[in-house]
């Protein structure tokens, strides 16, 4: 089985978990996973396919997924992360009002509500080994690393490898293979 197939199956399993979490009441009609539910699942899975610099990798017992701006995920991201560990570290979710408290964040999702302040947010993250993710249009050309896009009513993502490598992040070839597009400059 090739690496892309394995990664696609892992993503499908997480998406299945999202759908299951949304339909806990067995008498209720199952709800279809929303765009933000799928994005939340991707945020958790990205952690498995990124290598951080050694100085950051062992610095804490937790791995933070941080949300900057309005939180479009609600409780879904919390449910997905509950009890999750990666490399022996507990995954946690934090909501940020601004860029003053980025300590412990390995991934920062920048909500579209921050579009006007995006240059300031990216400047604050510019030298930190933090994966930046957003659904803001042109996010990866403006300095971000992973941008969610809708393609044929499916959530996909584009990657700017150069932006990630500039801060010392290494993205797995398996992640790059499932991206809609990969920019190297």
Q: What can you see in these coordinates?
A:
The chain has a single domain (about 35-185), classed as Rossmann fold. It has helices spanning about 5-20, 35-45, 55, 75-80, 120-125, 160-165, 175-180; strands spanning about 50, 60-70, 85, 90-95, 105-110, 130-135, 145-150, 155-160, 170, 180-185. Strands 3-4-2-5-6-7-8-10 form an eight-stranded mixed sheet, sandwiched between helices. A two-stranded antiparallel ribbon has the order 1-9. It has about 180 residues and is of the alpha/beta class. The protein starts with a helix and ends with a strand. α1 packs across α2 and α2 (about 35-45) packs parallel to α4.
Question: What are its keywords?
Answer:
185 residues; alpha/beta; 8-stranded mixed sheet; 7 helices; 10 strands; globular
Task: Describe the secondary-structure layout.
Elements: H1 3-22, H2 35-46, E1 50-51, H3 54-57, E2 62-68, H4 75-81, E3 85-86, E4 89-96, E5 105-110, H5 118-125, E6 131-134, E7 146-151, E8 154-160, H6 161-166, E9 170-171, H7 173-178, E10 181-183
Parallel strand pairs: 2-4, 2-5, 5-6, 6-7, 8-10
Antiparallel strand pairs: 1-9, 3-4, 7-8
Helix pairs in contact: 1-2, 2-4
Taken together, the total number of domains comes to: 1
**How many DSSP H or I helices?**
7
The largest beta-sheet arranges its strands as 3-4-2-5-6-7-8-10
Number of strands: 10
CATH topology: Rossmann fold
